[in-house]
Design brief:
single chain, 144 residues, three-stranded antiparallel beta sheet, 8 strands, globular
Length: 144
Amino acid sequence: MSEEVRREYSNGEITVVWLPAKCIHITYCWKELPEVFDPKKRPWVNVNGASTERIIKQVERCPSGALTYYYNNDKKETMEDVKKPTVSVEMAPDGPLMVSGSLLVKRKDGSTESKSGTTAFCRCGKTKNAPYCDGSHVTNNFKG
């Protein structure tokens, strides 16, 4: 079994972690913060391109968990440690339903799963990871 690719980029205050196998290509990162995320450059993450606070806000919008962060202090606080007081819902154009906040997802079999940050829920109906988006909307040319 091969080990999952993991890249880390640090500015001294935080470390951004990228897991490319988890990416569902919503493109929020590089469209909304191109000073930090530029897929045409190597390395594609420049953690010195914006303030730590701005990078954290952008990473928290990653719907798949391909981008996360942790603080480089003794406590090693992570995204999961930071609880959001509210939930917001956004429909990505031709993509998933983006739900941000601390969530409890209840499946029809009764099982539950806690989520925090941003979670992408499938709208196209083609995902193989229901109820979550797996990027199938891209290959199926979903419009909605």
